[in-house]
Design brief:
alpha+beta; Beta-Lactamase; 4 domains; five-stranded antiparallel β-sheet; 13 helices; rod-shaped; binds adenosine-5'-triphosphate; binds magnesium ion
Length: 531
């Protein structure tokens, strides 16, 4: 009995003891809850706050007593995410625990704070639902930062999507991360899939082995940060592909559809060819009168001589048939006839030369450059243009004996030399005082062949030296110049031959144009001569 009482007293003491210690624990927990900027809360079954810790005031500015008896939905701002909210309501309906729900809380002063809450249902011992308890914290700064990131990301996406170029990003291991729609569409036309995780090589592979090789070559350059190469889509469209390393070692890829640009380039190139061709024809047209004149002179004396030979032959045959009966002086005829024959042959030779030169000059160029004797070419050009300069100037040629054949489109080089010679003649004529001199010299300078055309004409005024190569720049009266000669010559020398065309001029004393052509065009680095 005693023992039973003792036991009862002891257990009562234990019970009190336990009660005290539980109470202490609760106080400690409460102290912890109260000290936090996060806060703890409890609601009744109607989700009305029955208790909130004071942290709520520190982070939201709402005092606990402003919340007690009211539901958090009384404070939810309009802008709270509808989807998140309906998820939460479903959870509450099911009496499920919930977590990570963020809603926008409107303080009485109108300021909106973002609050993240999580909670668990509280059930009585008999299982009836009594409410929820949980935590809340202010995540306004985090949400705002997230929003900023989202806005920045959306702007980036919008910008990238608005590019007409295909844009894609690959990570440092070369795997696809993201792209815009233009890239996906281009990749599809190429027969490649630009899906997540695919390697850049896989996406380029459908362009074929030569494109892959071009890509490899571009990246093989030591320390390469970027690569650029070209590819064609099966439908014939042309792409340029630019790849660039990003700061973190990934690769940004830009695919540009350059079909129209390439088309325009081809159209321009063919227009340029046509322009050159028509300038050549123009030049020939101008030359035609002079050439006719050049042929006319020898033709005339060949004709005179042949007529003389006809009468001489009649006289001589009479003298041979009946010696001593004729009136003519046989001795005179015997000395004159060979002269007339020589002169006729000379004339015919001259005509042959002119005709050959015209033929050579107007002969269309082959597609490929071929080694040409520039000295012969210059002589040809001087022959066909003789009538343009012979009244105003002498021409002197100083040909370097060691000049090797030069790989070129010789017809186009003829055209350039003709332009320079005609310009020289015009400049001498414009100066007007006395007969001038045009000197054409050649030189081998290392890997370069050089042709210099200099004259004793007006020279180029200092303010015009920078403009004479411009298309349509001319100082000549209409009908005498269209201003295309030097611009076309420059295109021929620089663009088509990888050479240079330079000018040196002393106003009042003359001008000197220098054509430089590479002897090994494949390896040549074009360099400008002094202008
Ligand atoms: N040897 C030169 N001496 C002085 N000025 C020159 C000489 N060569 C060219 N120029 C100047 O450069 C201008 C442009 O020459 P370019 O050959 O391009 O055109 P153009 O001779 O006027 O006309 P085109 O050659 O089309 O008939 C000339 O009008 C002239 O003013
Ligand atoms: Mg000219």
């Amino acid at each position: 009995m005693e023992t039973a009482t003792a036991t009862a007293i002891a257990s009562q003491r234990d019970y009190k003891e336990e009660g005290r210690s539980r109470f202490a624990t609760l106080r400690r927990i409460e102290a912890i809850l109260e000290s936090s900027n996060d806060w703890a809360w409890e609601t009744d079954a109607q989700f009305r706050f029955t208790w909130v810790s004071s942290g709520v005031a520190r982070s939201t500015g709402l005092r606990p007593e402003e919340l007690i008896g009211r539901s958090r939905f009384d404070f939810a701002a309009e802008s709270t995410d509808r989807d998140r909210l309906s998820d939460l309501l479903a959870d509450l309906d099911q009496r499920n625990p919930f977590d990570g729900f963020v809603y926008r809380l409107r303080r009485p002063d109108g300021v909106i704070r973002h609050v993240e809450i999580g909670g668990v249902p509280i059930l009585a011992l008999d299982g009836t639902f009594q409410g929820y308890a949980g935590f809340g914290k202010d995540v306004t700064e985090r949400e705002k930062a997230e929003q900023r990131v989202q806005i920045a990301q959306r702007r980036m996406t919008d910008a990238v999507e608005s590019l007409s170029e295909g844009f894609a990003l690959f990570d440092p291991t070369g795997r696809f991360v993201m792209s815009n729609r233009a890239f996906v569409a281009l990749a599809q036309s190429a027969g490649a899939k630009a899906g997540f995780g695919r390697r850049i090589e896989e996406i380029v592979a459908p362009f074929g082995a030569s494109v892959l090789a071009a890509r490899m070559r571009a990246w093989e350059v030591p320390d390469a940060r970027a690569a650029a190469y070209e590819a064609a889509l099966p439908d014939g469209r042309a792409l340029t592909i630019a790849e660039r390393r990003t700061g973190e070692g990934g690769i940004v890829v830009i695919w540009t559809d350059v079909t129209d640009i390439r088309k325009a380039e081809r159209a321009r190139a063919s227009l340029e060819t046509e322009l050159r061709q028509s300038q050549k024809l123009d030049a020939l047209g101008t030359l035609a009168g002079g050439i006719a004149h050049e042929i006319n002179t020898p033709t005339q004396y060949v004709g005179d001589n042949v007529r003389f030979l006809k009468t001489a032959f009649a006289d001589l045959s009479a003298a041979v048939r009946a010696p001593g009966t004729g009136s003519s002086d046989v001795e005179f005829l015997l000395s004159e006839v060979p002269l007339a024959i020589d002169q006729s042959l000379d004339g015919v030779e001259r005509i042959r030369q002119i005709v050959a030169a015209v033929k050579e000059f107007s002969y269309p160029d082959a597609k490929e450059k071929s080694p040409a004797d520039l000295h012969a070419a210059i002589n040809t050009t001087l022959t066909v243009s003789r009538n343009q300069w012979k009244y105003v100037a002498d021409v002197e040629t100083r040909f370097a004996p060691d000049l090797p054949p030069v790989p070129c489109h010789v017809g186009e080089i003829n055209q350039v030399v003709l332009n320079l010679v005609v310009n020289a003649a015009h400049a001498i004529e414009a100066k007007g005082d006395e007969r001038g001199l045009i000197t054409i010299s050649t030189r081998k300078d290392g890997d370069w062949a050089e042709i210099t055309v200099s004259d004793t004409g007006t020279g180029v005024a200092a303010e015009n030296t920078g403009r004479v190569f411009d298309p349509f720049f001319t100082t000549k009266p209409p009908g005498k110049g269209t201003g295309q000669g030097l611009s076309i010559s420059r295109t021929i020398v620089v663009k088509k031959h990888g050479g240079s065309l330079g000018l040196r001029s002393e106003p009042g004393r003359g001008a000197e144009f220098t054509i430089r052509l590479p002897l090994n065009p494949a390896s040549a680095q074009p360099k400008e001569t002094a202008t």
